[in-house]
Amino acid sequence: MIHHALTCAEAHERLSARLDGLAADESALAAHLLHCPECREHERSLARLRSAFEELREAPLSSANLWSRIERRAHGRPSAPLLARLAAAVVGFLGVAAAARSLNALRPLDSGDAPADPRLHLVERLLPAARGGDPFEALPEYRLLRALPTRTEDDSR
Amino acid sequence: MDPDRSLARRLEQREVSALREAYERHGARVERLCGRLLGCASEAEDATQEIFLKLFERASAFDGRARFSTWLHRLTVNHCLNRLEKLRLRRAGPLPEHDRALVDPGDSPPEALERGEARLDLARLLQRLSPEHRTILVLRELEGLSYRELAETLAVPEGTVMSRLARAREELLRRARLRPDPEPVACPRPETP
After folding, report:
1. How far off is chain B from A45, nearest CA to CA, in Å?
2. Is residue A109 scored above 60 in pLDDT?
3. CA–CA min distance B93, chain A (Å)
4. Which residues lie closer than 8 Å to B126 by C-beta, 6 or more apart?
């Protein structure tokens, strides 16, 4: 509904703003209210709502002391620089891995070098040794591990 | 001058003593705001812990353009809105009967709000509002934020604050006139495994 250049929606907005102490074009609002009983009722409802909120506002602050729980969890969190370093390390590792794969894929297959897929390269290294016994003997890392002294019961005490 | 500026710098250095000071200064207010937005004391406690841990981790994001308390308000409001959205997605099925019968069918706003149980009615009605309207009403009416602070906290222009507040008040009055429909309320039910 429109009364004197203000719609009811506009009047509601101005009434709401006026409730919060904001100045509005009072003459236009007053002219609207003079002819609009719905908006006059809305104005009264807003005033009652404000009173009800004032009562609710007086609710006491919380008494729950959460500090000990927050402190425990704060101490358990790795610092931001550490997280950043970890993230950088992971990104770096993935980058190197991707670069290695790309380089491997660029090698010509007939050059006698390892095939493009590193898994195939591993199979190639393991197969000859598998025919003769322990297939992992072909891996230098495995031989190194085997060369280390075995942990005895005395060591674990 | 922001009284929390040096506190913010110490938080940036990840001093646990600064976090404790921040909690002592703002913890109760943050928890009360969480309770009003989430509508549930246990949710409010969990949210308060998460917000202060976020504060500890993200203190370097505070650029000093707004007051620290406003920034913390924003952090709180965003956390609660995200939490409400998660709860909304998780919730299914009809509400318990006592949640539906918030206002008698014949109640009009004057009758409902002027009776002795106005505080209870209004607190429950707030939980029926859309998160957007509930947030702005809680911040304005209960936390006492100015229009400028509301604009900073909600990251909207002041004109939007004005129109949103008007619509929020209309929605609240409309809901007070009607018997509430079975919409979700904020307090979660126990999760089933």
Report:
1. 7
2. no
3. 30
4. B36, B39, B134, B137, B138, B172
Size of interface A-B (CB pairs under 8 A): 111
Nearest Cα to Cα of residue B113 among A100, A14, A93, A44:
A44
**Given the structure tokens 């509508």, which residue do they identify?**
B39
**Partners of residue A45 in chain B, C-beta under 8 Å:** 109-110, 173
Question: Which tokens hold the place of B29?
Answer: 């207010």
Chain B: give the shortest CA distance to residue A152, in Å: 45
The sign of the dihedral angle between the CA atoms of A138, A139, A140, A142 is: negative
Dump pLDDT digits (tens) for A63-99: 668 888 898 888 876 555 555 666 767 777 777 777 6
DSSP single-letter state for residue B117: T
Q: How crowded is the C-beta side of B157, counted as CA atoms within 13 Å?
A: 3
Q: Do B53 and A70 touch (CB under 8 A)?
A: yes
Rounded Cα distance between A42 and A11, Å, is 10
Residue pointed to by tokens 């404790």: B20
Instruction: For the full predicted model, state whether its pTM sits above 0.90.
Output: no
Rounded Cα distance, B164 and B133, in Å: 7
B37 or B120, higher pLDDT: B37
DSSP track, chain A: -EETTEEHHHHHHHHHHHHTT----HHHHHHHHHH-HHHHHHHHHHHHHHHHHHHHHTPPPP----HHHHHHHHHHSPPHHHHHHHHHHHHHHHHHHHHHHHHHHHS-GGGSS--SSHHHHHHHHHHHHHHHS-GGGG-HHHHHHHHSPPP-HHHH-
Q: CA nearest B67: which of B163, B131, B148, B137? A: B148
- Select from A15, A29, A56, A83 the residue whose CB has the most chain B CBs within 10 Å, as the one to mutate to test that interface: A56
Q: Which residue of B has its CA nearest to A73?
A: B53
B118·A52 Cβ contact <8 A = yes
Please name which of B79, B110, B68 lies closest in space to residue A45, comparing C-alpha atoms. B110
Compute CA distances A90 → A76, A83, A84, A97, A118, whole Å.
Answer: 22, 11, 10, 11, 20
